[in-house]
Structures are given as structure tokens and as C-alpha cells.
TrEMBL record:
<feature type="domain" description="Threonine/Serine exporter ThrE">
    <location>
        <begin position="13"/>
        <end position="148"/>
    </location>
</feature>
<keyword id="KW-0472">Membrane</keyword>
<dbReference type="InterPro" id="IPR024528">
    <property type="entry name" value="ThrE_2"/>
</dbReference>
<keyword id="KW-1003">Cell membrane</keyword>
<dbReference type="GO" id="GO:0015744">
    <property type="term" value="P:succinate transport"/>
</dbReference>
<feature type="transmembrane region" description="Helical">
    <location>
        <begin position="130"/>
        <end position="151"/>
    </location>
</feature>
<dbReference type="GO" id="GO:0005886">
    <property type="term" value="C:plasma membrane"/>
</dbReference>
<feature type="transmembrane region" description="Helical">
    <location>
        <begin position="58"/>
        <end position="76"/>
    </location>
</feature>
<keyword id="KW-1133">Transmembrane helix</keyword>
<feature type="transmembrane region" description="Helical">
    <location>
        <begin position="88"/>
        <end position="110"/>
    </location>
</feature>
<comment type="similarity">
    <text>Belongs to the ThrE exporter (TC 2.A.79) family.</text>
</comment>
<dbReference type="Pfam" id="PF12821">
    <property type="entry name" value="ThrE_2"/>
</dbReference>
<protein>
    <recommendedName>
        <fullName>Threonine/Serine exporter ThrE domain-containing protein</fullName>
    </recommendedName>
</protein>
<feature type="transmembrane region" description="Helical">
    <location>
        <begin position="6"/>
        <end position="27"/>
    </location>
</feature>
<dbReference type="InterPro" id="IPR050539">
    <property type="entry name" value="ThrE_Dicarb/AminoAcid_Exp"/>
</dbReference>
<keyword id="KW-0997">Cell inner membrane</keyword>
<keyword id="KW-0812">Transmembrane</keyword>
Length: 157
């Protein structure tokens, strides 16, 4: 893949991630002045995950670091607009939810129900289910960590 193809793929990924981030922000009644921060956080987070996955990092770890970046952007945006960080971050993380893995897990479950037990189907279901679960957990932990780091009041002993 050439530099220009890679750059085009990254730009397309970021633009296509900003659209659902803004859409979910509108569903959650985010103020209009904050929509650009939701779009920026969604695009940068998904772009970060894209770059890390292109470098060979597994989707779980790439999602964790991307959610960490989105959490940091949310804290910066919250201080700028005097709003809670979740206004920006929740809508920005939703495009990174692993829907394909969850869908493949459900299809494998249906196959198990229709065809009976098969080690191949069971393995496919387990792999996709574990990947989906760990990716969602990575998104949640990565999104929560910046808030825990910056808003912790009591000293660490």
C-alpha cells in the first residue's frame, strides 16, 4: 500500500467515523455547539484505532488506546465548553463498537441451534464473542481512565 493510498484510507475512515458520532450525539441531545467536538473526537479516535491496527496491533488494544484518546479529547472539550466529558465521549466511542464480531457470534449461535454442536462452529462463536466482549471492555476502560486520572480528589497512598 502506497503512502497516498494509506492516507486516503485513513482520511476516509476518519470522515466515515465522524458521521455516526455526530448522529449519535444528536440522538443524545448534545448541544449544537458541541457537535464539532463529538465529530472530532469520533474521527480522531477511529483514526487512531485504524493506524494502530494497520501497524499490527490487535483490535482490543487499538480500541483501548483510541478510547483513551477520545477520553482525553472529552476532558479538553469539557473544560472548554463547561460541560461533562461524557457529552463528547460516549457518542464518539459508539462507532468503535465491534458490531461485526457480535453479529458473527450471533450467526454462530444460530448455526449451533440449527445444525447442532460442531467444534468449528463453537470455535467461531467463542473467538468472535471473546473478541467482541474484550473490545467493548477495552472501550469502557479506556474511556473511563482519563476521568479517573484527572478528576480524582483524594491522594494516592
Amino acid at each position: 500500500m502506497t503512502f497516498w493510498q494509506w492516507g486516503y484510507a485513513l482520511a476516509a475512515d476518519m470522515v466515515l467515523a465522524a458521521i455516526p458520532a455526530v448522529g449519535f450525539a444528536m440522538v443524545f441531545n448534545v448541544p449544537v455547539r458541541a457537535l464539532k467536538y463529538c465529530a472530532m473526537a469520533g474521527a480522531l479516535g477511529h483514526g487512531c484505532r485504524f493506524v494502530l491496527m494497520q501497524q499490527g496491533m490487535p483490535i482490543e488494544w487499538a480500541s483501548f488506546f483510541a478510547a483513551l484518546l477520545v477520553g482525553m479529547i472529552g476532558i479538553i472539550g469539557s473544560r472548554r465548553l463547561l460541560a461533562p466529558p461524557h457529552v463528547f465521549t460516549v457518542a464518539a466511542v459508539i462507532p468503535m463498537v465491534p458490531g461485526v464480531y457480535a453479529f458473527k457470534t450471533m450467526i454462530a449461535l444460530v448455526d449451533l441451534n440449527q445444525h447442532g454442536f460442531s467444534p468449528e462452529i463453537w470455535q467461531r462463536m467463542a473467538e468472535n464473542g471473546i473478541t467482541a466482549a474484550f473490545t467493548v471492555a477495552a472501550l469502557a476502560i479506556g474511556l473511563a481512565m482519563p476521568g479517573l486520572m484527572f478528576y480524582r480528589r483524594r491522594p494516592v497512598i
